TrEMBL record, chains A, B:
InterPro entries: ThiC, ThiC-associated_dom, ThiC/Bza_core_dom, ThiC/BzaA/B. It catalyses: 5-amino-1-(5-phospho-beta-D-ribosyl)imidazole + S-adenosyl-L-methionine = 4-amino-2-methyl-5-(phosphooxymethyl)pyrimidine + CO + 5'-deoxyadenosine + formate + L-methionine + 3 H(+). Pathway: Cofactor biosynthesis; thiamine diphosphate biosynthesis. This is Phosphomethylpyrimidine synthase.
């Protein structure tokens, strides 16, 4: 996987459907509201339908040309609201692609390739507020909200058979840990959650290609994948392909953390080709514009960068406005100080000027920009702990309290807001993070990185952090930012991205199951049933990574016969416990009781006899 | 890793020391009591010493000849007790290696190769009881107990500096969830835990090569790796190498689950070459002896098998004596029935004979055998759930209660006992398992497989289960049985074994940190400090898998210079947050405050000024 394939080859691969899968759509109250799902056809005739983040790429009917960008999904909905206007927009300048782009010719060529991706930007008409939160507070249910409702429910029909047994449902009833998840998500419920600020729908009016999704503790737990070039390596083609690859495996959101050359042009490619919300950390680009000298950053340069990115269609901005001058000294005695890039940049600026950062002092000015495009806040945790021993310290919680204050200001402007969280937190300190966030940030969605539960697993931090992610997701975190095996070591290649995403799909699903999200467990049951029935192909296809599952199986039992064999390689024909279980049932049935619960009846009776016969601890041994 | 190397090559590789590591020994009250640790030399002169399961294989001074077996560690201690006797022992018969060993010549050759591994067995003298629990109850502190105490403590000296900060220690204080872990483990504490049955030291008197270790909730959380040939594949050489490979990466125990041909001879090779306790499931071999027909099993055949394996030196037996006739019907309505091999075999026997199994009726006879060799019980959970939807059901808990009764009978005979647990359990149902086990099994050590928190991740079940393992380990489980990526799909190769072990070392360590095990966090702190200081080589070497960490790093920044560079590939020179943090500190220092806590003082003062100046939410913007 590490050898860089050609872009064309890679994209071709990412367009393949998953095994036995077809994309279908749930149509809403209007013809142009079509929510994609992936239908998996099982060998027993069942169809299992799952949430689909892969966008048009897995739709054979879709024509994909990355140099033209994706078709619009929301264009008409935005236009119909009549509260936006097209305008000339900001003129791109050379500096947008970095202060020292060594290769001007290459850049010109890249911009040329991105020419067809240029759009005249939209913004709110004077005095208008175009955020989903604004509509929600006014009681308006937008198509985006209805889309989210249909998407969260999926096709409930097939799940019913797996949830029919009342006794089992009672035994397995989840523990929502304070979440309030209705049996069926209605558009009105979505509206209410967005109005309360308990959920966000990241959807910039300049990103009509996005397939709306929600981030909130009363919805399915989502995951975010980070991509981005770097001063040290990677190319635009790789970045776009990484995006498509990431959503194929289940990334609900993608953050473009590019910090190297050609940032602006890279972003055109990514946003125009992304069906999922794109987030950025604007301070990274701003710093590029001032040659990497944090002290030289200014509100004017930052403001210009926000508008630049808002016009391109970025859906949410990580803004480290909680890094206050008075908190910086709290990090001095830490083992690993400030590990957030954005946080350390702002800390340095604050130190150099001995003033509150312009992110904090201009927060309302920032809100004014956000609401003109419906860009959501991801309030950055610039003072998050960088190791277990700095977890839950004064600096971290001081910033969290400020993020709570800023949330209320953002909400005053109807700007959608989520809160970023750590980071590195031992298991026994995770709950305190969730509790503190819910309390101080008024239930605004929590968006955490991991957390990593230990620090001694470089090369395996996707696992060390999936443990913390699953736990905090259960406790109420709405979106989990993935960690790849390369965390702390290097830049993730496409296989690392996949490994990180699968680990986080596991964490998110484990959280949904524990919370008792309606229907979440049905897919597990369908797979377990296939396992018990020896429907190997179904077992593979219902998994998060069918190819790998089949590949592992075939390593030991390559023959196709094995796919239907009533035993597997672990035990071999004689030892298979599931086969024996079936024999136990047949044995009971053979005893003349035909009912499905034959064994229950037959054995209950036998057990009774046994107990009548004394049932004492030791019974005389009879020769066998 | 999947291509089978030659045994010699493989073993050579497993004999290499870890980078910058040397094996050293902590000597106890007698010269022949030497507890191995791995000392990792850091580039800053520090030495970090870690628990070492790898045995003599990583000791350059040790002479290893797998056909001769390892040197004895405990021989003298056992002899000194004067309560054992050598005896002729049971005569191996052809059937010991399976009912239909197709290749007699091959078997003869294998036995020939194992000739030098034959030992005349030891057993307790008439009327004697040689279990560690028996000695413990009599108030005797055995060398094994002292060995365990020294091993659990390790070298505490180096940890001190990382635990010096009282405020930090208070903030990070673990939550032991009911465990009672002393600051220092004394031999007397070990004795008391073993006497109470709250810990076991698996150490068959016929396995003197074992380096004693303890399994109990007040000790470090341990992990078990399963190996074993199979009817379908693998060879003896592979099995021994898998053992050495498994302990290299950190397996505290290994279970030999061989079910195919040459079982007896394979076991000679494994036990004689293992420095860690070896567990087996004797019913597997017994079934081989009756040609795989469960109904044909008998107490006589089983008893003969127990003695056969006890004489060879197996340290613990998984015995599914809790599968009672009256419980079997409780599994009839399950989604995946009975998934434990041993459990399903016994269920079939019970069905066929409509009698309680001989494991249950002869339990005290089994105890008599166990105490004559100090074989520990691992009471099997034959009715464990095989999928999330069968978790915590009546069948599972009915068996657990019976295991509690059997535990008290075993303890009456002073036989060391641990309890096996599931399996497949969603996160929110894990605590109930631990609570029920503690209550019904009187704090006997819990030994769980995972549990897997979801069922939709075939190919990644080591991750799906590491989440559950970390949680239940924190809650009180003493040993975690690993799951590899091949779970449910095929037989693990050596890389799968490594992946499973690393995932479980992560889970076990996360549990130790959460419980607040003294010193557990020091290694994390040392690694985090190295990370902050840009001591890359130390960061790699302090990790669970130094080679992989370095390999990942070098993929992006191959040059040796990068190993000391004050930036890493993720951010590049300009963006490194840790570098900026250092600059923040220097900046503060440069302001004329020389103290180490310069920033704290300098900034606190500045922050004070700021607050005196009003510290109001919005301050007038000054031109930058």
């Amino acid at each position: 996987m590490n050898a860089p394939d050609s872009f064309a080859t890679l994209l071709a691969r990412t367009r393949e459907s998953f095994p036995a899968s077809t994309k279908s759509f749930i149509t809403g109250s209007r013809a142009d509201l079509r929510v994609p799902v992936r239908d998996i056809a099982l060998t027993n005739g069942e169809v299992v339908s799952v949430y689909d983040t892969s966008g048009p790429y897995t739709d054979p009917a879709a024509i994909i040309d990355v140099k033209q960008g994706l078709q619009s999904v929301r264009g008409a909905w935005i236009a119909e609201r009549g509260d936006t206007e097209r305008y000339e927009g900001r003129k791109p300048v050379a500096l947008d692609d970095g202060s020292k782009s060594e290769d001007a010719a290459r850049l010109a060529q890249l911009r040329q390739e991105a020419a067809a991706l240029q759009r005249q930007p939209l913004r709110a008409k004077a005095g208008a507020n175009v955020t989903q939160m604004h509509y929600a507070k006014k009681g308006i249910i937008t198509p985006e909200m209805e889309y989210v409702a249909l998407r969260e429910n999926g096709k409930r029909e097939w799940m019913a058979q797996y949830m029919a047994d009342a006794a089992r449902e009672k035994r397995l009833a989840g523990n929502p840990m304070g979440a309030l998840i209705p049996k069926i998500i209605t558009p009105e419920f979505v509206r209410d959650e967005v109005a309360r600020g308990r959920a966000i729908i990241p959807a910039n009016i300049n990103h009509p290609e996005v397939e709306p999704m929600a981030i909130g503790r009363n919805f399915l737990v989502k995951i975010n994948a980070n991509i981005g070039n770097s001063a040290v390596t990677s190319s635009i083609e790789e970045e776009v392909e990484k995006l498509v690859w990431a959503i194929r495996w289940g990334a609900d959101n993608v953050m473009d953390l590019s910090t190297g050359k050609n940032i602006h042009t890279t972003r055109d490619w990514i946003v125009r080709n992304s069906p999922v919300p794109i987030g950025t950390v604007p301070i990274y680009q701003a710093l590029e514009k001032v040659g990497g000298i944090a002290e030289d950053l200014s509100w004017e340069i930052f403001r210009d960068t926000l508008i630049e990115q808002a016009e391109q269609g970025v859906d949410y901005f990580t803004i480290h406005a909680g890094v206050r001058l008075a908190y910086i000294h709290l990090t001095a005695q830490r083992r690993t100080g400030i590990v957030s890039r954005g946080g350390s940049i702002m800390a340095k600026w604050c130190m150099a000027h001995h003033r509150e950062s312009f992110l904090y002092t201009h927060f309302e000015d920032i809100c004014d920009i956000m609401k003109a495009y419906d860009v959501s806040f991801s309030l950055g945790d610039g003072l998050r702990p960088g190791c277990a021993s700095d977890a839950n310290d004064e600096a971290q919680f001081a910033e969290l309290h400020t993020l709570g204050e800023l949330t209320q200001i953002a909400w005053k402007h109807d700007v959608q807001t989520m809160i970023e969280g750590p980071g590195h937190v031992p298991m026994h300190m995770i709950q305190a993070n969730m509790t503190e966030q819910l309390k101080t940030c008024h239930e605004a969605p929590f968006y955490t990185l991991g957390p990593l539960t230990i620090d001694i697993a470089p090369g395996y931090d996707h696992i060390a952090s999936a443990i913390g992610a699953a736990m905090i997701g259960w406790m109420g975190t709405a979106m989990l930012c993935y960690v790849t095996p390369k965390e702390h070591l290097g830049l993730p290649d496409r296989d690392d991205v996949k490994q990180g995403i699968i680990a986080y799909k596991i964490a998110a699903h484990a959280a949904d199951v524990a919370k008792g999200h309606p229907g979440a467990r049905a897919r597990d049951d369908a797979l377990s049933q296939a396992r018990f029935d020896f429907r190997w192909q179904d077992q593979f296809n219902l998994g998060l990574d069918p190819e790998t599952a089949q590949e592992y199986h075939d390593e030991t039992l390559p023959k196709d016969a094995a796919k239907v064999a009533h035993f597997c390689s672990m035990c071999g024909p004689k030892f298979c416990s599931m086969k024996i279980t079936q024999e136990v049932r047949e044995f009971a049935a053979a005893k003349g009781v035909a009912e499905g619960d034959a064994l229950a009846q037959g054995m209950a009776q036998k057990a009774e006899e046994f107990n009548r016969a004394g049932g004492e601890f030791y019974i005389p041994i009879q020769p066998v």
